[in-house]
Specification:
Length: 80
């Protein structure tokens, strides 16, 4: 399955990475997919969501919190 998503507002690369992750998780939840492999090129975002890095940027905090709320709804989530 292929999916395209356009950002509506200008944002940083890390905000765009979070937007992509959130969109993918929302789609997976709608499709009732329980096993998800996350491929990302932003080590910052992956490590923040995995809990390895702290979120120091206040602009990323809202993305991080929402992502964690989505991650909590999936039983099997893998970061690659």
């Amino acid at each position: 399955m292929h999916f395209s998503y356009h950002l509506l507002e200008p944002c940083t690369n890390n905000e765009a990475e979070y937007e992509a992750l959130i969109t993918g998780l929302e789609l997976a939840i709608l499709m009732e997919i329980k096993v998800i492999k996350i491929f990302g090129d932003s080590q910052l975002v992956i490590n923040q969501v995995a809990g390895t890095y702290k979120v120091l940027n206040p602009n990323l905090l809202k993305y991080h919190q929402y992502t964690l709320s989505l991650v909590g709804t999936n039983s099997y989530l893998y970061f690659v």
